[in-house]
Write a structure and sequence with these properties.
The protein is α/β, with parallel strands linked by helices and 526 residues long. 31% of the residues lie in helices and 19% in strands.
Length: 526
Amino acid sequence: MLRIRLGDSICLGGWEVPLGGACRRDRPCPGSEMSTTRQQPAQNQATAANPATDASVKHFVLDTNILLHNPNALFVFKEHHVVIPFAVIEELDKMKRKEDDLGRNARECIRHLDRLRNVGSLTHGVYWGEVAPRVGAGAALGPGGQTGSIRIDVTVYDRPGAIALDMPDNRIIAVAWHLHQQGIRSVFVSKDLSARIKSDSLGIKTEDFENQKVDAERLYTGYLAATTDGELIDDLYKDRLVPVERVAPFLVAKDSEGVEYPRELLPNQYVVLKDRDDENHTGIGRRLADTDHVIPVTGPRKPVFGIMHRNVQQMMALDLLMDDDVKLVTLLGSAGTGKTLLALAAGMAKVFSEERYDKLLVARPIMPLGRDIGYLPGDKDEKLGAWMQPIFDNLTYLLSTRGASGQGPESHTTEQRVEKLVADGKLVLEPLTYIRGRSIPHQFMIVDEAQNLTPHEIKTIVSRVGEGTKLVLTGDIGQIDNPYLDQSSNGLSYTAEKMKGVRLFGHITLAKSERSELASLAASRL
């Protein structure tokens, strides 16, 4: 016979309920999911004790592709809670065996979760602030240094008819749907458009992963235009130097509503000056690194390995490429604007003519357009030939009599000259597959088609640069073949936006196609 005494309580729904009294929502049952023996960090105790703060905290349900895109995505949601469906863990387990960047990201994410597992129960939730020193600069803290929790949801939920089919995407969406049905502020985060459409159709708040995105419509171009008085332009070229404060009053612009706002001239940013009284009286200046001076830009007076600029943006690009103090240059533009050709011409001039660098290294990501043709015969160099053909086309042009007369004996074909440069080790063509772990000193390095790289891959490449190396990233964000990237999230756009204002960095967006009249028409109309 069960004896009940005054003050006894029972466990109901995970909360302790006194017999004859109301449910104690402040006292979870011992051993229940609401209870944990682990001590929470002090900042999170304060959060849990403040109902007003709790009301502002969200639960972000992450899709697998978010963690494959950026393993540190676990730690960027500040004071909010991260929920990982168990189906995501299963998909990560399948991806970890891959030998590409997806496999690497899957393994890194699993290691993050394993470290959290040693802190507490992932089923109940672990406040990741306890391992924050290990996640590095990828972490983002909330107000007052608060951090949310990371939890793995192992429950198999009943699904509505629309997602009744048993597949990983539907099981993942079901976790967000369950939280939504409970009235919990939940957000489903995915880079999969179909998954976002499905979850949004169920009434779930749905978002893309915005942490590493930039505004592609307002992307940094590397130059400004200003209407000035003629005296400033004359002084710029006469004195070869003017202070930034003389230019600043002319950089004021108006927004769409007609409100004026000042524009800042960043280090290594160009300014195109136009005389308000004479439209033919113009000048171009560049803020010299992080100094307070603007210097005039005239462009190279003689061809750079047989190449002369054809427009203002190409002149700016060559100015950056030929400046040894600018260690990182990004060139962005549509097809035919001359990105790769200018970079190669500057690299060949610096390596072969000036001998400023030991060798010219050209790399491209292995990313096919359309369906891949499968395995290629031959050794590494023979396999690489198909991928590097655009580079060979530009090299052939630069080494031909049309591109640079007098560059070699007439008896040698351009193909033979390229082969000799490769054989001598002065020209290196390779994929980015083998760059991890390397150190690249005293080289002029060009990474073509950089728009197909993730921000993490760009970081890996830039961190390989050794002493005395110059790195050039080129690409067209309008032609992205990587299915996980777009104009706002690719590594080239991210680098141009995040590195602006750094004295070692320069960027130019090339606007006009110079390849041919047909190429220019195709770029603008198709």
